[in-house]
Amino acid sequence: MNRSVNGKIEPFPVRHYSEEEWIDWIEGAFAGDRQQRMQQHLEDCPACAATVRTWRPLLEPSGLTEGRSGVAGRGVTGSGAAGSGAAGSGAAGSGAAGYSAEGSRQTAGGNQDRTPASLPMPSGAVRKSLRLRVRYIGWRRRLRNRWTLYRGGAAALILCGALFLLLRGLYSPEDSSAERTRYVSSYEPQALAVMSRPETVSYALDRAGRDQFSGNVWYNGDSGELFVLIDDIALSDKLSLQAWMIKNGRRDPLGLLRIEAAKGHLYIKDGQLGDAENFALTVEPVGGSRAPTSPDAVWLPLPKP
Questions:
Q1: Alpha carbon 202 to chain centroid distance?
Q2: pTM of the full structure
Q3: pLDDT at 159
Q4: Nearest residue to 247 (alpha-carbon basis) of 268, 278, 225
Q5: Could you tell me the CA-to-CA distances from 149 to 17, 18, 141, 152, 158 in Å, in that order?
Q6: Exposed (0-12), middle (13-18) or buried (19+): which is 117, by Cβ within 10 Å?
Q7: Where are the domains of the chain?
Q8: Separation between Cα atoms, residue 297 and residue 303, nearest integer Å
Q9: Calpha distance 69→90 (Å, rounded)
Q10: What is the pLDDT of residue 154?
Q11: Average pLDDT across the chain, whole number
Q12: Which residues share a beta bridge with 250?
């Protein structure tokens, strides 16, 4: 098959089928469009036609082989099990004139070579063993290809796991705790005491849950102290984060969180909480509000000692 490129005739690139595929084709394993495509390919491809001429006498039952013309150079027809097909053409069928009626090939020097058709065929048991062997080789090749794929996938999984462990090591709880301690030591050192007392209750804020921020709240009912630390806070210059104490549904402001190094904190002490029942944070206009103007960003109960 040729194509015209810039006025020149060039051959099309040909994709040859494997021996295993032609063996399946001979045995009628394919049907429909695939069988027709392979038949068409066979008519235009001398290499594949030669492959079929080699394998067909070995794979077909002896009766079918003997019933065919013994001339090995004639065009190859459709697969035996699939029915009849178009006769081979072009280079695949051009060799017919080079064979004598006795089944031998006339060479350029006038000598005669015996064709496969004139040679004795192996027994049915040998042909069956040969078919099984060829199929085994084909399966082994396919398994090897799949194993290469699986091995690549396993390597990718191992790489992802190593990357996960690396990131986990970079952002481990120990490092996070050390960073938090450094921050509090720098901006609110008095709060370190309430954070470390054994009777202090610690609440973890989870942005993925009902809270709008991530961080921690430490509350000590005995001393009446409360410390809020918000991680990675991002508010515009026109907004602030305000704390509220709640009792019997009434809210009283406790102050605005101070924002430093992309974190927000507020330390409450000296009885400011009184006998509050709950604690809340809301996002308010810069400078704060007398009453909340937005839903609770954080809401916590304050257990009694």
A1: 40
A2: 0.45
A3: 80
A4: 278
A5: 22, 20, 13, 5, 14
A6: buried
A7: 2-121, 130-171, 175-301
A8: 20
A9: 19
A10: 75
A11: 74
A12: 247
Q: Provide the pLDDT for residue 276.
A: 92
Evaluate whether 42 touches 48 at the Cβ level (below 8 Å): yes
Q: According to the model, what pLDDT value does residue 272 have?
A: 87
32 exposure class (CB count in 10 Å sphere: 0-12, 13-18, 19+): exposed
Low-confidence ranges of the chain (pLDDT < 70): 1-15, 60-128, 130-131, 133, 135, 137-138, 141-142, 144-147, 149-152, 164-175, 207-209
CA 188 → CA 134, 183, 288, 300, distances in Å? 79, 8, 21, 22
Q: Rounded CA gap, 13 and 235, in Å?
A: 62
Token couple for 47: 């290499």
Alpha-carbon separation of residue 191 from 185, 200, 203, 303 (angstroms) = 8, 12, 15, 19
* CA contacts within 13 A on the Cβ side of 213: 27
CA distance 125 to 132: 11
Which residue do the tokens 């072009």 mark?
90
pLDDT of residue 56: 83
Task: Measure the CA–CA gap between 64 and 68, rounded to whole angstroms.
Answer: 6
3-state secondary structure of 105: strand
CA Rg value for the chain: 42
Helix (H, G, I), strand (E, B) or coil at 259: strand
- Taking the CA atoms of residue 183, residue 185, residue 186 and residue 189 in that order, the dihedral angle to the nearest 10 degrees is 120
Distance (Å, rounded) from C-alpha 99 to C-alpha 117?
11
Domain 175-301 CATH (choose: 3.40.50, 1.20.120, 1.10.3470, 2.60.40): 2.60.40
Query: How far apart are the C-alpha atoms of 72 and 93, rounded to whole Å?
Result: 10
State how beta strands 278-285 and 239-247 pair: antiparallel
CA distances from 292 to 5, 66, 249, 250, 266 (A): 77, 98, 12, 11, 18
Cβ partners under 8 Å of residue 285, min gap 6: 238, 239, 240, 293
Tokens of residue 305, six digits: 């000692």
